[in-house]
Queue: 2 jobs
Job 1
Amino acid sequence: MIRLENVTHAYGDRVVVDDVSLELSEHRIGLIGANGSGKSTLARMFNGLVVPDTGRVLVDGLDTRRHVREVRRRVGFVFSDADTQIIMPTVAEDVRIGLRGSGLDRAGIEERVDAILARHGLADHRDHPAHLLSGGQKQMLALASVMVTEPRILVCDEPTTLLDLRNVRIITETLRALPQQVILLTHHLDTLTGFDRVLVMDAGRIVFDGGPEAAVEYYVDLMERRP
Ligand SMILES: Nc1ncnc2c1ncn2[C@@H]1O[C@H](COP(=O)(O)OP(=O)(O)OP(=O)(O)O)[C@@H](O)[C@H]1O
């Protein structure tokens, strides 16, 4: 479980996360809000990519300031631009690199790589140059490379923003089917249908916390009232 206690973060003198306290235990959690409202900064605190200026973030009781390795093992992070996440030349290599230090032997590693590629529709692209994949396939690879490390929680920061409608659906369905807890930041509001909880962020604060329909209604209303 992720717990935030009076968390604040500023870039220079600009406060972008403003005294947020949360307990995130639901299976499917959405985080929505206008551009620049602080969602990514908040989400990056969930796995220690950003540490709070004040307050603390605990993952299963581990403080992200002091236990960054253990926290990263528990909390996987998927970015919106898969190109920034894919680091190896081929599909299989990119997945395999996540298993460094896993303690698995060579055969065990290949078995795990094959299984995860099959699950993400990439089995036929095993030795394919990663940079030649389509946008949708790249996002699947980015997801596969995180999932192979078997995180318990997955944070996805706008994973469908750069994708066409078909791939938005594929990624959304893939995320829905995961047994892991998923925290999804998105501007595709319809992907939140059936979620357990949706948070609306505005100017660094959580301004709504509830079910998906009510949260989307609140957010749309908030945006319509903006000059
Ligand atoms: N590394 C950084 N250095 C300085 N300012 C930053 C940095 N990262 C984000 N910001 C600023 O902090 C504010 C919040 O950004 P953040 O990315 O957290 O918002 P967001 O809600 O995720 O936005 P979007 O929906 O556009 O992704 C923005 O004004 C942004 O320009």
Job 2
Amino acid sequence: MFDNQKIGMIGCGKMGSILLRGILRCSLVPQGNIRVADAVKERIEEIREGYPGVRSAENRDLVRESDILILAVKPQNMPALLNEISADVNPRQLIISIAAGISTKAIEKHLAGPVRVVRVMPNTPALVEEGATALAAGSSATAEDLETAVRIFEAVGSTVTVSENLMDAVTGLSGSGPGYVFVMLEALADAGVLLGLPRDIALKLAGQTFLGAAKLCLQAGKHPGELKDMVTSPGGTTIAGLKALEEGRLRATLIRAVEAAALRSKALAGDE
Ligand SMILES: NC(=O)C1=CN([C@@H]2O[C@H](COP(=O)(O)OP(=O)(O)OC[C@H]3O[C@@H](n4cnc5c(N)ncnc54)[C@H](O)[C@@H]3O)[C@@H](O)[C@H]2O)C=CC1
Ligand SMILES: O=C(O)[C@@H]1CCC=N1
């Protein structure tokens, strides 16, 4: 599917380089078919050290040479970037944007033409091929474009396709979600340390508990409440811990975190 396609990526920071690694690991295209661009020279040097076959180019040259163009710069940098490349994009290209909050409509408007855009929200566990990615097609993107984008992100984890009005919710939940989980992991490990466990053992137990519980929930296809009940013996230890969580309003706090991040995603659109 990708053999003769040239992929160009503008923005090789945290998320861009994770994606690049996934694309190359799965051999979606040979290294020679990938071009990268970044405003910071050191980022390009790091990539060329890691992947000697990947070539770099200036933004506009890269756009002209790409069949699939991945835009992985910060939302705040998108308007200037889109203006810079607007004369070089063409309707034969597929444009994939991973920028939080930036709608396909805004991209289409900046590029001033019938461009095929797919908006994507990945997350950092893509680094270990356990990413959760949601995709939404823009007005001119074809079913095949969406399928192409899905194939790229399946290289780094699992994917869902949603309608674009749900992308802010996705951003608040799975896009930002790893940040919440890392804070919870750190807190669980700190608790272990408080109770006398060595830090490395506490972190290992906390991490494996998250991993195992998430896998059990996804694979068993059971409601998390039912799985929670399986752990919770009458008069036992878990219910004592759960009572403390309820007193600390953990659930309401998590719901508010996702809501706040989704609102911020929506607000980034206003910054366009
Ligand atoms: N970090 C994360 O967990 C996730 C990030 N995203 C989205 O991915 C995008 C990138 O985020 P990060 O990788 O975290 O940011 P980052 O700051 O690590 O990377 C952005 C890169 O873009 C480069 N850049 C900025 N303007 C440029 C321009 N005009 N031309 C060429 N390069 C340019 C910067 O030098 C930088 O290396 C953002 O839009 C963000 O919303 C999406 C999902 C998760
Ligand atoms: O914090 C951010 O803005 C990016 C988007 C989703 C995850 N990280």
